[in-house]
Amino acid sequence: MTEVPDEFDIVVDIGNNGITALAPGIMEPIVNLAVSHCGDLQKGEAALRPLRSFRRPLSDSIRSMPYVAMQSLSDTRPLAEYGSSGASFSLEGGFIEGLGSQVIETINGFLDEAPPCFWITAEHYLHGAASLPAVHERAFSLRRRGYTTRIFAGWTSPGEADRSAAWVKRLNTALARFSDGALYTNYLTGVEGDAGVRAAYGTNYDRLVALENRYDPDNFFSSNRNIKPDSTLR
Q1: How far is C-alpha 221 from the chain's CA centre?
Q2: For the chain, how many helices (H) and strands (E)?
Q3: Burial classification of residue 176, based on how many CB atoms lie within 10 Å of its CB (0-12 exposed, 13-18 middle, 19 or more buried)
């Protein structure tokens, strides 16, 4: 990923077959790579060649398709159906700067004790144009290369709740040492609180508070991952 063009994106999922049924009949954890290259087909094939020549996958369904067809591959209906069946979830998000051997070993160390239904995602590798602006030039401060992460566990039996939620938290904490303190705003789940919002905006946070003081001193727009004006902090 350190050498791919700007047009290339990837989502790496590690999970069992509790919801998605990516490989029928196989219930141990599998790795699923969802890739996209929006641009010249020959350049896309060249960028994909190292991946497609690495070992033999259970399935290789990479192909040329319209962009809207690619978007439809992210089918969340199985997850919605799982939730409507009475299941509960635990989810935490973060950021890692790369998928080096230490990150892989950390994740692998948690797989043997994983709950019955789980997945771990490293996705949307930030690179290229997204990392060109200086941190102070935009409100969004996460301008370094790396992956946003999500760790998920679901359960239908109340007896699995504590174990599943604790596993999510412990793994997310273990991966935090590879983030250099960065967080991705969209994946803040509430457990991080105001400290998580401050970490997500980094050195831009105080300047954004000044804008809140000027344009929204009463914090009317407060349903997002909120940057509070000084008036609400006193």
Answers
A1: 25
A2: 8, 5
A3: middle
The overall average pLDDT reported for the chain is: 87
Q: Which domains are assigned to the chain?
A: 8-191 (3.40.462.20), 202-234 (no CATH)
pLDDT(139) > 80: yes
3-state SS class at 233: helix
Length of the chain: 234
Are 4 and 17 a contacting pair, CB within 8 Å?
Answer: no
Whole-Å CA distances, 132 to 26, 112, 137, 167, 194: 42, 39, 10, 36, 27
Which tens digits make up the pLDDT trace of 37-92? 998 999 999 999 998 888 888 888 899 999 888 888 877 787 788 888 888 999 99
| Cβ atoms 190, 197 nearer than 8 A | no
CA torsion, ordered 8, 4, 177, 122, to nearest 10 deg: 30
Residue 21: the pLDDT is 46
